Amino acid sequence: MADNKNFNKVSVIIVGAGPAGLATAITIKKQKPHLDVCVVEKGADAGNHNLSGAALEKLQIHQLLDSAAAGWKDTEQAKDILARTIDNDNVYMFLLPKIKIKITPFIKIAKKLGLGLGQMVHAGDYLVSVSKLSKWLASIARQNGIEVLTGFSVEDIILENGKAAGVFLKEQGLDKHGNKQPNYAAPEKIYADVVVLAEGCDGLITEKFIEKAGLQRKDNQLYSLGIKEIIKVSDQQYKAFGDGTSIHSMGYPIWTPFIGPAMFGGSFMYAMGDNKIAVGVIVGLDFKYCDFNPQDALTHFKNTPFARQYLSDGQVVEAGAKMIPEGGLNAIPRDRETGDIGKFNTVIVGDSAGFVNMLKIKGLHNAIESGMLAGKAIAKNMHNTNNIAADYTRLVDASNIYREMYSARNFRQTFVKLGATFGMPFSIISNLLPQWKAEKDYQAMTSAKYRYKGNKEFDKDTFTAMAATEHREEQPSHLTILDPKICIDKCTAKFNRPCITFCPAGVYETVHDEVKPANPSNCLHCKTCQRKCPFDNIRWTVPEGTGGPRYKNM
Ligand code: SF4
Ligand code: SF4
Predict the structure, then answer these.
(1) CA-to-CA dists, residue 297 to 48, 230, 278, 320, 500, angstroms
(2) Alpha-carbon dihedral of residues 347, 351, 353, 355, nearest 10 degrees?
(3) Residue 361: what pLDDT?
(4) Most buried of 63, 86, 163, 386, CB within 10 angstroms?
(5) Which of residues 546 and 53 earns the better pLDDT score?
(6) Which helix H or strand E contains 479, and what residues bound it?
(7) Beta strand pairing status for 245-251 and 346-348?
(8) How many CB atoms sit inside 10 A of residue 87's CB?
(9) Do residues 12 and 374 lie in contact, with contact meaning Cβ atoms separated by under 8 Å?
């Protein structure tokens, strides 16, 4: 393990060095400097596995930085990472590639009337790279005496008598067949008084903990997949776009009225400085098209005349993919009896808990706030760690996080229940409708085909190269197809093996007529495959530490 220090026992272990985990760590350390706080991150560096839009509200990040880094506004990092505030905020409805309606005025009226839709106004927010933000927060954490251990995957949580006692790290140095190689390192344990799960969306340890500790969600967690590219454009194009510009769009190519396709989601374009524009699509994983490749949708959006005027002839300099938890309030995992978001001395924060406000399709501000609230509850209750989850939950349920989640409680489910065409208008009054239950995303798959094919094959190899993803080749595959017979006997005839198409990294291939995760080294850790395989036939496990994408500006 890194350094000569003894990490076998710490006061608090935090799994995941994203904004939520680091906000937790920093808050604890500022309030109780004597506590040993350790953050474990599977990426080779903090921020490597963090990808988001991202429009970031100012309140929560300012509160965190004010508490942790005096004079932060004058630092080089602040001047770089928080350099852009949205001053040109527009939302469009694309009816067809060339026909769009600017709906910003309606959203602004909705805001004035206090309607949920008004939350889509982002003017005044920062445009940030969440990978850069996470690296910065990790450096602030280290300056405050927190150990941020990067390149270590956590395999499981240790539970003793129903209480967390720490975590197991993943063993390293096995060959493809599971044999120990000369560099083998046995799975280490880190014991801790408190465990914080801050792994991001669909956290592996979080899901294991939910099952073992008897937590439950009132309704299924739903997911979407975000595909993003950063494109370097010409001076003229960037100037025309505007340095403080944020564009969100609904409609084509994710949804068009009556003729289809009919999916939940949209597109975005954000100014990133240095002549770079981030462009992406977000697609609900309840899509029904078995041949749908989310990267086709991104290409179609980039080919609209609107996007093309800013992006044509630009160079893709970075790319990536990530899931977003969309189930909202009723998908937050809570203890069956107490309603706690965690249990005793274990809490779940950020995207791992699902704190994404679907009216904004933003969760970064909530992730940071939940980390600060968890830190507060932990610092206060170290003398009786059994109270931590209850105290944290009380704080969350009295906070802006809960208010936002409550306001959006039926929004996404209305689309699931009524479909995109009717869900769109009814989502405005979703809270007046019955609270719908949603089926799991993979159950929505049908044999229907996505209607906007036709662009040339998307080059997934180049895409993964732009994510700089890599894994040690000689390790066992971290992707398992549970029953290969299902692929042949059921999936091929019905859906024609959709994992081959929807995986953004082209990991799955047909080899000797069998579907295999043939290129696990390309995996972007988005976990879409285990949530969208229509037969729930794929399991994603954590690879050795340091593997995965190496995002810098995402
Ligand atoms: Fe179909 Fe799932 Fe098999 Fe892929 S892994 S072929 S999606 S059953
Ligand atoms: Fe995402 Fe699964 Fe493909 Fe990896 S293999 S990139 S987790 S869909």
Answers:
(1) 25, 16, 15, 15, 16
(2) 120
(3) 84
(4) 86
(5) 546
(6) strand 479-481
(7) unpaired
(8) 13
(9) no
pLDDT of residue 457: 62
The rounded Å distance from CA 11 to ligand 2 centre is 34
Cβ neighbours of 485 (radius 10 Å):
12
Task: State the closest ligand 1 atom to the C-alpha of 484, by its place in the atom list counted from 1.
Answer: 3
CATH topology of domain 472-540: Alpha-Beta Plaits (3.30.70)
Where are the chain's structural domains?
9-77+130-217+332-407, 472-540
Q: Using most ligand atoms within 8 A of CB, pick from 292, 482, 535, 540 the residue to mutate for ligand 1.
A: 535
CA 316/CA 506 separation, integer angstroms: 18
Are 545 and 170 spatial neighbours (Cβ–Cβ below 8 Å)?
yes
pLDDT digits (tens, 9 = 90+) for 353-371: 999 999 988 999 999 999 9
Name the residue of 283, 522, 525, 526 whose CB sits within 8 Å of the most ligand 2 atoms, as the mutation to test its pocket. 526
Q: For residue 495, which atom of ligand 1 is closest to its CA?
A: 1
Residue 6 confidence (pLDDT) above 60 = no
Per-residue DSSP letter, 548 = B
Q: Which residues line ligand 1 (CB under 6 A)?
A: 481, 486-487, 491, 497-499, 515, 533-535, 537-538
pLDDT of residue 114: 85
Do 9-77+130-217+332-407 and 472-540 agree at the fold level? no
* Distance between Cα 207 and ligand 1 center (Å): 22
Measured between alpha carbons, how far is residue 513 from residues 325, 506, 519, 529 in Å?
Answer: 34, 17, 16, 19
Cα separation of 542 and 525, whole Å?
Answer: 9
Q: Which residue has the tokens 């809490």?
A: 347
Mean pLDDT of the chain: 95
Report yes or no: 42 and 48 within 8 Å, Cβ to Cβ: no
Q: The tokens 């992730």 sit on which residue?
A: 367
Q: What is the pTM of this model?
A: 0.96
343: Cβ–Cβ under 8 A, 6 or more apart, which residues? 162, 163, 164, 213, 214, 215, 335, 389
Could you tell me which CATH class the domain 9-77+130-217+332-407 is placed in?
Answer: alpha beta
Mean pLDDT across 310-334: 97
* 265-419-416 Cα angle (round to 5): 75
Give 1's pLDDT tier (boundaries 50, 70, 90).
Answer: very low
Comparing 40-54, 267-281, 386-400, 446-460, the range with the smallest average pLDDT is 446-460
- With tokens 């454009």, the residue in question is 233
Strand partners, 12: 37, 194
> 165 — phi, psi (to 5°)?
-115, -5
| CA-proximal residue: ligand 2, atom 7 (nearest) | 527
- Looking at the predicted structure, is the pLDDT value of residue 3 above 60? no
326-335 residue pLDDT tens: 999 999 999 9
Q: Ligand 2 pocket: which of 51, 522, 523 to mutate (most atoms <8 Å of CB)?
A: 523
